[in-house]
C-alpha cells in the first residue's frame, strides 16, 4: 500500500531553512491503529528500522495506491473547523473529546494554541 499524505508543515514552509515538500509518501502494510490514538487515523507498518510504523491522520491523506481518498463520513466525535489567524492565514482545527489539533506552527511545538481556544469558544 502506498499512501500520499499532505505535509502539515507546507503551509509554513518559509519558516524552515530547507525545502519542505507539499506531500510525502508512506509505503507498507495497513495494521490496526493503537488504542491510545484518539483521533481518526490510519496506521501503516513501514518495516524494521528506527520506526516500525507510521500513524497518519486521515484528514491529511490525499490518495491511497494512486486513487483519490476522501475520509468516510461517520458519526465521528470529531469536527474540523477552519480558523483565520491574526495574520490572515487559515488553519484547520480538529476538535474531539480528548484530542485537539491545529495546523499552525505554535501547535507543532507547544501542542496548544489560540486557534484551538477560539474554535472551542465558537
Helix amount: 10-25%
Helix-strand sequence = EEEEEEEEEEHH
Q: What is the overall shape?
A: globular
How many domain units?
A: 2
Q: Helices and strands: which structural class?
A: mainly beta
Radius of gyration: 15 Å
Regions with pLDDT < 50 over 5+ consecutive residues? Answer: none
Total strand segments: 10
Our measurement of the CA-to-CA distance between the termini, rounded to an integer number of angstroms, reads 39 Å
Count of helical stretches: 2
Beta-strand content bin? 35-45%
For the largest beta-sheet, the strand count, sense and barrel status come to: 4 strands, antiparallel
Strand order of the largest sheet: 2-1-6-7
Q: What's the pLDDT, averaged over the residues?
A: 86
Chain-wise SSE layout:
Blueprint: E1 2-6, E2 23-27, E3 29-31, E4 41-45, E5 53-57, E6 61-64, E7 67-68, E8 79-84, E9 90-95, E10 100-102, H1 105-110, H2 114-121
Antiparallel strand pairs: 1-2, 1-6, 3-4, 4-5, 6-7, 8-9, 9-10
Provide tags for this entry.
single chain, 122 residues, mainly beta, four-stranded antiparallel sheet, three-stranded antiparallel sheet, 2 helices, 10 strands
Amino acid at each position: 500500500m502506498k499512501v500520499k499524505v499532505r505535509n502539515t508543515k507546507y503551509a509554513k514552509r518559509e519558516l524552515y531553512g530547507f525545502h519542505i515538500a507539499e506531500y510525502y509518501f508512506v509505503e507498507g502494510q495497513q495494521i490496526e491503529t493503537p488504542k491510545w490514538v484518539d483521533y481518526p487515523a490510519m496506521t501503516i507498518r513501514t518495516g524494521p528500522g528506527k520506526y516500525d510504523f507510521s500513524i497518519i491522520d486521515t484528514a491529511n491523506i490525499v490518495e491511497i495506491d494512486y486513487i483519490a481518498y476522501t475520509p468516510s463520513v461517520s458519526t465521528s466525535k470529531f469536527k474540523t473547523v477552519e480558523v483565520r489567524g491574526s495574520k490572515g492565514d487559515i488553519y484547520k482545527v480538529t476538535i474531539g473529546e480528548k484530542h485537539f489539533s491545529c495546523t499552525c506552527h505554535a501547535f507543532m511545538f507547544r501542542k496548544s494554541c489560540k486557534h484551538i481556544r477560539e474554535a472551542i469558544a465558537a
